[in-house]
Amino acid sequence: MSLPHDGQRPFFQFGNPFRMIFPKESYLSPRLSALLKSFEQSLAERLKKLIPKDKSDVLSLSWMRVAMESLCGTHRDVQTLITELQFPVSDWDEKWMDVYLDNSVRLLDICNAFSSEISRLNQGQLVLQCVKHTLSDADVPSSSERIIQARTSLDDWVKQICSRSPKLESCSSILHGLTSSLYMSKVMNSDKGKVLMRAMYGVKVETIFVCSIFAAAFSSSTKTLTGLQVSDKFLWAGAFNELKLEINGEIKKLFEHGTSSIFKELELVESSVKKLFPLISDGVVPAEGTLVKSASDLGESAERFSEGLDFLSKEVEDFFQIVLTGRDALLCNLRAYGLNPDPKQKSSVPEQLVR
After folding, report:
1. Which terms in the GO cellular component ontology are assigned (predicted)?
2. How confident is the model at residue 261 (pLDDT cuts 50, 70, 90)?
3. Could you tell me which residues come within 8 angstroms of residue 24 by beta carbon, excluding any fewer than 6 positions away?
4. DSSP bridge pairs for 12
């Protein structure tokens, strides 16, 4: 596969904003230190679990599902941390709240982009199941209308699988915006605020990383892979740097070797399609049972791929709801304290997740 961005540096070359979060050595109370340590250790464990034991698992639908589960868990953890800090929204820095609201809109948009692409891929699997049923009769002759119908359906599937959802085009700019938000010159001055800022930095880094992998997988391009560098002062830095090295490196190898599909499950479907095509070509009379067997194999591989997409779709939807719930909670708290959120923020929220 020829990639338009091969040979270029990764899209994100941002450094580490750690000094902006903690410009000087911070001394926290034992309670706050324990809360922060617990959060960072949990994040480190989540990241370690994403490091694949087998490189062939990289960008399988099952790995992507686990990655999105991990991201959901981290976002839940930071919501719990906010509650445990007993840090009223009235004490939050106004600029930080604006960035939070901006980023939540970006995340909702990118969830919609991912869901749109998953839906498009799933529609293709319905076409393949129709091919299976069309060719399920062992007595179907090669010149029959059903053979012609199956061949037409496979042609349509090939065209569809090579296309992309238009919404994916926005992922690069969305991720760029999320990465830029790591650079905040003004931070919360209280100890609780500093703990929250440090935790949110970890959340953002994992979010950017996972979403960049999803964008690369769906767009078949390496340009969204993040080059973020994380300071070893974070307890989760080692796990993140190892994970980034393993995953980004393997993705680049896949593209460099001209893989036709970055999804392992989709490669199995494509292999079945290639085996079936010659059996339903003009002038070809399939051997007895060969056509039915090939059609059955195609149906099974398509069904496994569809099931993987369904599980992944559910995790993306869960993430969407977590982000939306957190955003709504902040807006409600702002109103409760008599603060007026920016009206532009409210109007820019996507109405619903695309299924």
Report:
1. membrane
2. low
3. none
4. 226
Is residue 6 included in any domain, yes or no?
A: no
**How many other β-carbons are positioned within 10 Å of the β-carbon of residue 181?**
18
Residue 355: inside a domain, yes or no? Answer: no
Taken in order 16, 230, 212, 350, is the CA torsion positive or negative?
negative
Residue 180 is assigned to a structural domain of this protein = yes
A 10 A CB-CB count for 278 gives 10
3-class secondary structure, 47: helix
Q: How many residues does the chain have?
A: 355
Give the single-character DSSP code of 226: B
Answer whether 171's CB lies under 8 Å from 210's CB.
no
Q: Please, are residues 206 and 174 in contact by the beta-carbon 8 Å criterion? A: no
pTM listed for this prediction: 0.86
Strands (E), 173-270: none
Amino acid identity of 286? P
Instruction: Judge whether 10 lies within some domain.
Output: no
- The values of phi and psi at residue 322, to 5°, are -65, -45
Q: Per the structure block, which two tokens stand in for 259?
A: 């893989």
Q: What do you get for the CA distance between the two ends of the chain, in Å?
A: 29
pLDDT digits (tens, 9 = 90+) for 187-244: 566 888 889 889 999 999 999 999 999 999 998 888 889 888 899 999 999 999 999 9
Domain count, the chain: 1
Start-end of H helices in 51-187 = 61-85, 94-134, 145-161, 171-180
Residue carrying the six token digits 């995340």: 107
Beta bridge pairs of residue 226: 12
Q: How far is the C-alpha of 249 from the C-alpha of 95, rounded, in Å?
A: 36
Task: Name the residue range of residue 250's domain.
Answer: 27-347
**pLDDT for residue 69:** 97
